[in-house]
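Chapter review: from sequence to fold.
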Amino acid sequence: MPRSVSGVEMRKRQAAHIEAPPQAPGQPRPNTCCLCWCGCCKCLWNEDRMERSERQTCTKMDSIETAEEQHPSLDEVLSWARSFEMMLRSLEGREIFREFLRSEYSEDNLLFWLACEELKKETNPSVVDEKARIIYEDYVSILSPKEVSLDSRVREGINQNLAEPSNLMYEEAQLQIYTLMHRDSFPRFLNSSVYRDLLANRRRTCLDT
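The token string follows.
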């Protein structure tokens, strides 16, 4: 008959299992331990596995929330009032300014300026030709519903350059629209509820923190 195991020996075996060194990476782990024959969640290994899973889930959610909560700082919003150029360099600044221009039905001025900025970066002749013609059809042609306000001299120069487009062919027109936005739209933007509400919100956030 097989020798019976005493209670003392059983406790020694259980203690030896608990104090055993951790499994090396890549080695299979038993499905159960001597203290949890059913493999339930009370097993120390199962508890450790669940804790690691919860930590990983929390880390992922924190990353998502951080990405969703990215907003311009108070200092950045204040800097826009000091510099039109600084606002245009900021993605958030351009978006909030575009929202204001949309309320005044002059959003196309900013879109034209941005399209010219993209064109200036191009070096491929075929891409330059395509983008230059798209800009013309969208913002310069008198047949376009999004036509921007350019004087006749600048418009005539564009018409002449269209025969041989270059990445700088709209430079003078872009400067004219930039000046228009800076002198005309920008002061109204700073006094608008769009900007003032954002500024007040950033100040409240700073006080709360």
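Two observations follow directly from the output. Residues 44-68 form the longest helix (25 residues). Confidence is low (pLDDT under 50) at residues 28-69.
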